[in-house]
Write a structure and sequence with these properties.
- The complex is a heterotrimer of chains A (97), B (352) and C (376).
- Chain A is α+β, with helices and mostly antiparallel strands and 97 residues long.
- Chain A is 25% helix and 35% strand.
- Chain A has a domain at 5-59: SH3 type barrels, CATH 2.30.30.140.
- Chain A has helices at residues 60-72, 75-85, and strands spanning 5-13, 16-24, 27-32, 46-50, 53-57.
- A 5-stranded antiparallel sheet of chain A has the order 3-2-1-4-5, with no helix packed on it.
- Chain A is elongated and about 70 Å long.
- By secondary structure, chain B is of the alpha+beta class.
- Chain B folds into 2 domains: 57-90 and 101-165, PurM-like, N-terminal domain (60s Ribosomal Protein L30, Chain: A, 2-Layer Sandwich), CATH 3.30.1330.10; 173-339, PurM-like C-terminal domain (Phosphoribosyl-aminoimidazole Synthetase, Chain A, domain 2, Alpha-Beta Complex), CATH 3.90.650.10.
- Chain B has helices at residues 30-45, 84-98, 118-135, 190-198, 216-226, 240-252, 267-276, 295-307, and strands spanning 56-60, 63-72, 78-79, 82-83, 101-113, 138-147, 155-165, 181-184, 204-206, 230-234, 255-259, 290-293, 315-321, 328-331, 337-339.
- Chain B has a 7-stranded mixed sheet with strand order 10-12-8-13-11-14-15. Chain B has a 5-stranded mixed sheet with strand order 1-2-7-5-6, covered by helices on one side. Chain B has a two-stranded antiparallel sheet with strand order 3-4.
- Chain B is globular.
- In chain C, the strands form 4 sheets. In chain C, strands 2-1-7-8-9 form a 5-stranded parallel sheet. Chain C has a 4-stranded parallel sheet with strand order 4-3-5-6, with helices on both faces.
- Chain C has 376 residues and is an alpha/beta fold.
- Chain C folds into 3 domains: 5-63 and 174-247, HypD, alpha/beta domain 1 (Rossmann fold), CATH 3.40.50; 71-168 and 278-302, 3-Layer(aba) Sandwich (Rossmann fold); 318-362, no CATH class.
- Chain C has helices at 10-23, 37-45, 71-81, 104-109, 120-129, 146-158, 173-182, 195-201, 207-211, 224-239, 259-268, 299-302, 318-322, 346-349, 354-361, 366-371, and strands spanning 30-36, 56-63, 87-90, 113-116, 135-141, 164-170, 190-193, 217-219, 245-247, 269-271, 274-277, 281-284, 288-290.
- Chain C contains 16 helices and 13 strands.
- The chains are: A alpha+beta (97), B alpha+beta (352), C alpha/beta (376).
- Chains B and C meet through helix 7 and strand 15 of B and helix 1, helix 2, helix 4 and helix 16 of C.
Amino acid sequence: MCLAIPGKIIEIAPDNESSALIDVVGVRRRVDLSLLQDDRAVPGDWVLIHVGFAMSKISEADALDQMRTLAMLGESEAAIQEVQGYGLEEAGDKRTP
Amino acid sequence: MSHEIRPAGVTPEFRFREPQIEMAHGAGGKASRRLIEGLFAPLLLGASSAPLGDAAYLSICGVQVAVTTDGFVVKPLRFPGGSIGELAINGTVNDLAVSGARAEAMVVTFVLEAGLSTEVLRAEIQAMAEAAQKAGVRIVSGDTKVVEHGKADNMYITTTGLGVPLAGVDVNPRSVHPGDKILLSGPIGDHGITILLARGELDLEGDLRSDTRSVFPLVDALVRAAGPGVRWMRDPTRGGAATSLNELARDCGFGVILFEDAIPVHDAVRGACELLGLDPLHIANEGQFLAVVAPEFADAALKAVQGAPGGEEAQIIGEVRDQPAGAVLVTTLYGGSRIVDMLVGDPLPRIC
Amino acid sequence: MKYVDEFRKPELITKAAEEIRRLADSPRHYRLMEVCGGHTHAIYRFGLKDVLPANIELIHGPGCPVCVLPMGRIDDGLSIAAQHGVIFAAFGDMMRVPGTQGSPLEHKARGMDVRIVYSPSDAIKLAKTNPDRHVIFFAIGFETTAPSTALTLLRAKAEGLRNFSVFCNHVTIIPAIRAILDSPDMRLDGFIGPGHVSTVIGCRPYEWIAKNERKPIVVSGFEPLDLLQSIVMILAQLQKGEAKVENQYKRVVPWEGNRAALKAMAEVFELRPYFEWRGLGFISQSALRIRPQYAEYDSEQRFNIPGIRVTDPKAAQCGEVLKGVLKPAQCKLFGRECTPENPVGALMVSSEGSCAAYYNYEHRKASVVTSLGLPA
């Protein structure tokens, strides 16, 4: 029930707007886009593919947001501890770029 | 591979209890092992306790000769990167190579399906002639049978190869020890995924070709540079690298540890495997080999293979350790690990 | 691979694991259940247990649609296919699952026409290229897969196919979670929620778990960083005494679900009054069947099926393992009579079943993890 992979839409079939060719690092397959009627996908979009159907569009913004959160894991805590070591009250924003 | 008789061979004795032959028995994994060890070996090979390798060494009138045989059954006959004819030549050349021998001569048997187009047959014979020439092997004899239409999937080919042992190498899993390094000649999974795609049942297309080729030049380079340190070799065909390495672990009695990030895999193979829920370690290869090399020879071994044409992507992918004894463990850079077993039958795509 | 590799970065995994250790640094023992079989598979495939502290225990839930399928249903499906000229099409996951007379692959060896498909639409293709034969598509899966089956059936109808039907074994996830929480032996602190089912049903259906059962549930993706981040989020809730539904898999899961998918399902399927789940018994309103107006495409309407019930051997403790009460290795048959090659019970038949996953990826590992100095 759970194996679904991100793939990039290469082209929409000229005779069927519900059918698209997707690419997963060089492997290609036709997938059905009918489940994305409410949020149509276009070439260049990334979609989540399960049993030959696109289940959802992948949000680049949410993915980036998640990566940012992950990169910061533990850093706020470390920053707080470091600042407390200085005997200051404020937890300084010491996120390293 | 030398044939010393040692007490209590590592290979366990099974009796083959299954009432009929299934596809799994030909897939190169556990079921194949049960058939070979439970039926063929006891009845044909007698009491030898030597681990089963790719080729056998014989002494005929004082001359050491290596001999091996292999059957080739492929659908479709032709696929990107090759065809059944090339597989038939290269497969046997490779079996001899990883047993430490240079293939010299081959005999070929064809089982042909009535109705097979002459043009198709001619193309395969041509492919075999070219592959043999490239590999430096003479085809010296052969046989042909024809069966009714509907049998033989167009054609089945068997090749039996004779080879001359290479000097300075003696491969035997019992000489493998903790600390030894595991070398892989290049990316895995290309052949099996190419065939899967070429069958057309899964509606996938990819930029993939079979990796079929003779690995002898790479093995030769390895032996010249590191011969005394080469403990074991195998070509990971059906069942993939996982099967060969599990055989190694079982035969040597130690653990095989692999570093996942070091294992070379082409992008398209990876993509197909992720899409279908397959593991590249279980996918067949027709142009790669694995070698276990003593640590002091490992650098020289890797350099030699990487320096040989076609060996550029070779990597050290792991090492032998005490534990987990008899098993293969894949580890990641972040400290996660998983056991990789050999499969029962062919890898099946999954959706869960 | 985009949207995959980023979520497998070793340095970030290590960081997330450190954060988990920090949050879980207490004498408390945490029991978290991942519901979905795909998550179970991911946990083993990525070796995630190796990076978690010892006081976090991951309990494997019943979200494996192959595992919970009663053997009798496989027999029923194969009995239709045994009829002359019928093609039996199913996902690879089903091919080695044993019925009482053997698995689909074993039936293939005996002459049945059995085909592996990646998509239900491939089964339609088979029907079109074999117009004189009937194709039965053995449909399995939770709500992730049901919409695709539904759309495929609608397409078959729209194209006027006469030689295609679906043998429907789709099940729904919420009743399975309820069965877990209703189990008296169960003590769980939180849930890692199914990620791909949620792309269809959204996150609202889990609200009762937070409100009524007072347990955190975080809907999670399938990459190592997704799972670890979800565990961070669950632990953070537990620390604050919170119990809410959160969506870790935001890049793909819409809170309200997929309307088109739900619509297709509602059009084609209705709930069965009850359905038998292997290991869990009969559960009401937990499975889908094809609506009467699509009877022509319902294998159960077009063909007579024996409908035989097959009970598992009493010695197999699948139910308890399925509910997370027992660990796979604690079942008396594990690794002896019951192995992936010779599965006696439900959880060995599928590679994502907890027993099979444990057997394949883990159980010979125990001694080596500590000896390799891997983080405990």
